[in-house]
Amino acid sequence: MVKKKTIPLLYDHHTHTTGYAALLESVDLTEVKEKDEAVSLIKENCTEDKTNVVLGWNNSYYSFTEEELNEFPPVVICNLSFHGFIFNDKAEEKIKERFGNAKILERMNDPDWVERNLPAIMKFLVKLEGLDEKKLDSFFEYLSENGIWRTDDMLLPDENVLDLFEKTGYNERTDFWADLQIYDQLSEDAKKEVKGIKIFTDGALGPSTAALKEAYSDGTEGILVHRKEELKEIINGVEEDRVAVHALGDRAVEQVIESVEELEKKRFTYPNIRLEHAQFISKEYAEKAKELGIKLSMQPNFSHDSVHYSDRLSGKYAKKNNPFRILIDEVKFVPGDDLIFSSDGMPYGVVPSLEASLFPPYQSQRLTLDEFIAGFCLEDKEEGSIQIEIDEEEKKVSVEKVDT
Ligand SMILES: [Zn+2]
User: Fold this and answer.
1) Which residues lie near ion ligand 1 (Cβ < 5 Å)?
2) CATH number of the domain enclosing 146
3) Above 80 in pLDDT, residue 203?
4) pLDDT at site 127
5) Is residue 158's pLDDT more than 90?
6) 393 Cα: distance to centroid of ligand 1 (angstroms)
7) Which residues have a Cβ under 8 Å from the Cβ of 268 and sit 6 or more positions away?
8) CA neighbor of 244 nearest in space, from 151, 177, 343, 176
9) What is the DSSP string of 229-266?
10) What is the mean pLDDT of residues 2-22?
């Protein structure tokens, strides 16, 4: 059966707007599963005159030897989830020329450092490729074409970006979250522009650094960025009203929820908490989170991680990923209220997000169209609408028209 419906434009609650805008013209390997194709894309599109940032590399499909890397123009290749990087000698030279040293590249080899310094890395990548009005125009055009009106940018790279967004009017379509390091460097005026603080507590599945309770198939255990006492202190000390906490694995999710629970018991004040990703949250901890008023900010797209990362996740964990039915039916999270959705830019657009919601790998990950609309769309059609067609049999979503 084919169903037609007109829905409001999307509010992508967790993306990296400035990061992706700066990297819009970069080679993107997200859809590239064959190494040969990746190699020719990089050789054809990267130039010798600058350090090229390459995106979306999935290391479960292929990797590059040092020799192969050095045949490319200067490149920094980012893992699919931005939590892992490789680069060649030419890139190192170019970066040394430009910044005086290439210390950041050396550090980017260290997964532990990477997990603790993602904002600095994002800032560095934005600097390598540069961000201007033209790039912002093209990026917001691209978002509109894909049915997205508003975004939350989860990593403000620096204060200049706020000026650029204000000048171009795109601040009307963007809210910024800043990590504490960047936040402390902002002027008082800029601080007022920020929606909240972003804190990282673990890594991601791409580089096998999300903190799960069981080891990955290669024996590594993921990275927990803070000790609990440290995390409690950070959350307790935030001066903004809102905090978005990146916690992907169950070990990280439980650490955050326990921290908030302990602050609550001691009657400490803490800001409104949004848990980002929470992919492996258990029913028990979801209930605690609900009780504590913690909002869940999740990505239907990541339901496919159960398949994409089956090389490193056990079957048990693949099934635990994005347990939307438990969260909504059993723990009574309400889409649009305390359960909100986004793409994290992997990839952007109404089609992949809606397909992943309606036709995920596991039934436990399924969302209804109404739940998708409540958690992922703007409240009304004032800014525009999307005419969609859902083919239940083919498990396909297509867009007839986007009106903005
Ligand atoms: Zn993110």
Assistant:
1) 154, 344
2) 3.20.20.140
3) yes
4) 86
5) no
6) 32
7) 236
8) 177
9) HHHHHHHHH--SSEEEEEE-SHHHHHHHHHHHHHHHHT
10) 95
pLDDT of residue 191: 95
One domain, residues 122 and 146: no
Each residue's pLDDT tens digit, 178-188: 999 899 999 99
Q: Which residues contact 80 (CB under 8 A, 6 or more apart)?
A: 30, 56, 57, 58, 59, 206, 346
Q: How far, in Å, from the CA of 1 to the mean position of ligand 1?
A: 35
Q: Locate tokens 């990797």: which residue?
A: 63
Please tell me the distance between residue 97's alpha carbon and the centre of ligand 1 in angstroms.
30
**Confidence band (pLDDT; 50, 70, 90) for 85?**
confident
Q: How many domains does the chain have?
A: 2
Give the Å distance between the CA of 174 and the centre of ligand 1: 15
Q: Assess whether pLDDT exceeds 90 at residue 270.
A: no
Longest dimension (CA), the chain: 61
Per-residue CA distances from 122 to 149, 178, 229, 234 (Å): 23, 12, 27, 22
> What is the reported pTM?
0.89
Q: Per-residue confidence at 116, pLDDT binned at 50, 70, 90?
A: confident
Residue 10 covered by a domain: no
Average pLDDT over residues 16-28: 92
- 253 CA → ligand 1 middle, Å: 15
For position 97, which CATH number holds?
Answer: 3.10.310
7 found inside a domain:
no
4 burial (CB, 10 Å; 0-12 / 13-18 / 19+) is exposed
